[in-house]
Amino acid sequence: NGSSDSVSESCIKIPTIKFSKLFINGQYVDSISGKTFETIDPRTGDVIARIAEGDKEDIDLAVKAARHAFDNGPWPRMSGTARGRIMMKFADLIDQNIEELAALDTVDAGKLFSFGKAFEIPSAANSLRYYAGAADKIHGEVLKMSRELQGYTLREPIGVVGHIIPWNFPSPMFFMKVSPSLAAGCTMVIKPAEQTPISALFYAHLAKLAGIPDGVLNVITGYGPTAGAAIASHMDIDKVSFTGSTEIGRQVMKAAAASNLKSISLELGGKSPLLIFDDADASKAADLALFGILSNKGEICVASSRVYVQEGIYDEFVKKLVVKVKAWVVGDPFDPKVRQGPQVDKKQFDKILSYIEHGKREGATLLTGGKPLYEKGYYIEPTIFTDVKEDMLIAKDEIFGPVMSLMKFTSVDEAIKRANDTTYGLAAGIVTKDLDVANTVSRSIRAGIIWINCYLAFDEDCPVGGYKMSGFGKDLGLDALYKYLQVKSVVTPIYNSTW
Ligand code: ADP
Fold this sequence. Notes:
Blueprint: E1 22-24, E2 27-29, E3 36-41, E4 46-52, H1 56-72, H2 80-95, H3 98-109, H4 113-134, E5 142-143, E6 149-157, E7 160-164, H5 170-184, E8 187-191, H6 198-210, E9 217-219, H7 224-232, E10 239-243, H8 246-258, E11 263-267, E12 273-276, H9 282-294, E13 306-310, H10 311-326, H11 346-362, E14 365-368, E15 372-373, E16 379-380, E17 383-386, H12 393-396, E18 403-409, H13 412-419, E19 427-431, H14 435-444, E20 449-452, E21 471-472, H15 477-483, E22 485-493
Parallel strand pairs: 7-8, 7-10, 8-9, 10-11, 12-13, 12-19, 13-18, 17-18, 19-20
Antiparallel strand pairs: 1-2, 3-4, 5-6, 6-22, 11-21, 14-17, 15-16
Helix pairs in contact: 1-7, 2-4, 2-5, 2-6, 3-4, 4-5, 5-15, 9-10
The structure holds adenosine-5'-diphosphate (ADP).
């Protein structure tokens, strides 16, 4: 790879970790058990901080605070304009701390610092602004009743929300969930992933500074089977918004059903296809394919992990791909030349390497990569397999790493059929100049977002979320706001005397 020297010591910057306790009812507190857990720097494997380990009892306290704030506090009762103003202030405070927040996510998750600074942290602030602008536009409808009745609907906040967040985008995911639920007037308990708890605790501090009332936004750091499970099965949480693996999503759904039938939304795994047609520019298509699978080291639920290339362009595409992947620099995510940092932790690192071994054993051809890099840290070479068949594990399972499965196809119909040959349905990409092909394919693929001649093109106003076993319920856009609202119908006779 481009950077063959080891991770340069000069690049290592560890910001001070200022917040490491649970945030309940506006205060930072130790966990009831007094336990803490380590969070590590994936560039080195070293411990960077010890964080309070919340458990069921801490979730109970946080839910009590959130319930009180919902039932009695000002947040759900204040005007949308007033909530929006506080959210705007929250966004400005994020802007004032962009570098520090980006650095925290870099040391906690191995994310590219430059990308965090330019996109991820600003997108967190912009998500607050987007929903702040919607907070004063939440209203119901006047109904056309067929009898002499007057009917209208109210959109009310759903109540206390539990947000369970994954580790791959600690800041954007936090705000994808928190911003619309704040705008709706909900109160909440947020559980960041145990691998990446640091920035969420910092955001709690900024929320308080911005004027979000105590109890509205609580952050409980801790593990999934304990703190996470306590949220999913809590009797006093009205809704859970979960992003993570399909396996855990299923458990969250079971726990919701077995407890109080709380409303849930699940954004789960993916195995998204990118379809490249003969008329594409091979060089641009190769750039897009690498961007789709190697961005954020492949730790993206919508990663383009299955790349289908039409036979007429296949050889040229592969040639370009090999040249480009050689120039793809893997290394310290603080280094501006670097395009790919370390995997989030040892567990993911081992899991990805074992999938690579599996791919070799299954008979796929290793075109590039396949090995770990450097003595320290969880770096893996960009890895491309060719001769992949749909029934191989590497083509079916979400690997969540820098591993591309490359496949050849002949016709448009075949491409659609094979792209849909997956239990998932999160995203898909199409590269073609032919409008008919783009229109046909985008309508035929069963996935929640289709990118034509682009990939990973996210926007605050553009909903994302799964079809099939990738889950249900959207993040982003106004659809996400409606997840946190419920419709109440109010009916009264027009003439009281006639009823
Ligand atoms: P991954 O496999 O990518 O780590 P997970 O689905 O395990 O994804 O984790 C996503 C989030 O779900 C994390 O915040 C994690 O702590 C939480 N989680 C894990 N297990 C459970 C569970 N049994 N109940 C609720 N939340 C859980």
